[in-house]
Amino acid sequence: MQETITIPKIEYERLKKLEKVDHDLIAQLVESLEDAKCGRIRRVA
Predict the structure, then answer these.
(1) Per-residue pLDDT tens for 1-45?
(2) 3-state secondary structure the chain
(3) Is the Cβ–Cβ distance between 17 and 9 less than 8 Å?
């Protein structure tokens, strides 16, 4: 059974922006891990 709730539009928009940021951060993390796995990183002092 699905429930419905009501929230202000500004709150909905804020949550959608946060969701996009989460997806972007995860994509960057995955890319960084792939780079590390393939040896495409170097230490910077």
Answers:
(1) 999 999 999 999 999 998 888 888 999 999 999 999 999 888 887
(2) CCCCCCCCHHHHHHHHHHHHHHHHHHHHHHHHHHHHHCCCCCCCC
(3) no
- Is 36 in contact with 42 (CB distance < 8 Å)? no
What pTM was computed for the model? 0.57
Q: Cα-flanking dihedrals φ and ψ of residue 27, to 5°?
A: -60, -40
Q: Phi-psi bin for 6: left (phi > 0), alpha (psi -120 to 50), beta?
A: beta
